[in-house]
Amino acid sequence: MEQLKTKPWSVSGKYVLITGATSGIGLAAAKELAVRGADLGIVARSQVKGNETVEQIQKLTGGQTKVDVFLADLTDQLSIRSAASEILTRCPRIDVLVNNAGAMFVKRILTRDGIEKTWAVNHLAPFLLTTLLLDRLKMSGQARIITTSSHGHKMAKTGIVFDDLTAEKRYSFPQVLLGGANFRYGETKLANILFTTELARLLEGTGVVANCFDPGLVTTNFNQDNGLLARMTMAVMKRFSRPVEKGAETLVWLADSNDISGESGKYYMDMKAAIPSAAALSGEIAQKLWEVSEFQTQHLKLG
Ligand SMILES: NC(=O)c1ccc[n+]([C@@H]2O[C@H](COP(=O)([O-])OP(=O)(O)OC[C@H]3O[C@@H](n4cnc5c(N)ncnc54)[C@H](OP(=O)(O)O)[C@@H]3O)[C@@H](O)[C@H]2O)c1
């Protein structure tokens, strides 16, 4: 009997849900995915910016792309839960989930959930959104989950500091003067990799894969809300940065390429598997982080 051939994977005709698509790497990726034929769901914190993004995409594809906007402030767990509920009502399938939104904060701010803000946006938001949407991703068959990490994870040399999850020490004197906010950012980007490792393990055998990537140093709006010094630093770094299209290249490839079908739990850079820091390689720590994240989001365990 002739063997049944499965159709090669491509993002054309697939539904891609993406956070942080109103600017920078996410916007460039959303545009390219739309050009390649994907329908999009954009998770944005501002209706105005969401609408502007839809307009830009529709202009690019001559109105051929279905683009939904879902509102969520990713610092706020109630807002994430409400958006997830709306997504589950409006989206019968999610083929690709991209956790891309991210930020850095030079000052220590606690969210109304009592979570330090960098940790809330960069780690707990992807954790909560993904786990709330996981059954829908599984129902969609061979779904893909992609999380934007960073080479900056290497700054977290001591790994996840589980006894300082609200980053009091990181942001206190003298650590804050020695780059505490940068280390905190690095810790959240390390958490993105460990989250991917454990998610991939939990998803084994389901057909859903989870990977993360480093976009490189990219010219975006990143770190523009942290005062003059941060803006000046970013202006200098711009000289060494890549354009957004290049920064989005690996994300688009992870969403669209058939070559990596079945690959899961990996960290990529420039469309190649890369080796993250030693702190990112422990399955035991990845498991511990998952349990802590469940506790911090008061979310039920995956069944
Ligand atoms: N740029 C780099 O060199 C670089 C390097 C490595 C990794 N990364 C990672 O790349 C990802 C994208 O960053 P980017 O460089 O493209 O920066 P960006 O231009 O500032 O874009 C960040 C995106 O995240 C969204 N966002 C931030 N806080 C949010 C919140 N509370 N709720 C909802 N959405 C929120 C922003 O929405 P608004 O448009 O409303 O602000 C924007 O769409 C981040 O995860 C970052 O850590 C960047």
UniProtKB/TrEMBL annotation:
Molecular function via GO: oxidoreductase activity
One Pfam match: adh_short
EC number(s) reported in the record: 1.-.-.-
Top-level taxon of origin: Bacteria
Keywords carried by this UniProt record: Oxidoreductase
PANTHER family recorded: PHOSPHATIDYLINOSITOL-GLYCAN BIOSYNTHESIS CLASS F PROTEIN (PTHR43157:SF31), PHOSPHATIDYLINOSITOL-GLYCAN BIOSYNTHESIS CLASS F PROTEIN-RELATED (PTHR43157)
InterPro entries: NAD(P)-bd_dom_sf, SDR_fam
Gene3D superfamilies linked to this entry: NAD(P)-binding Rossmann-like Domain
Protein name: SDR family oxidoreductase
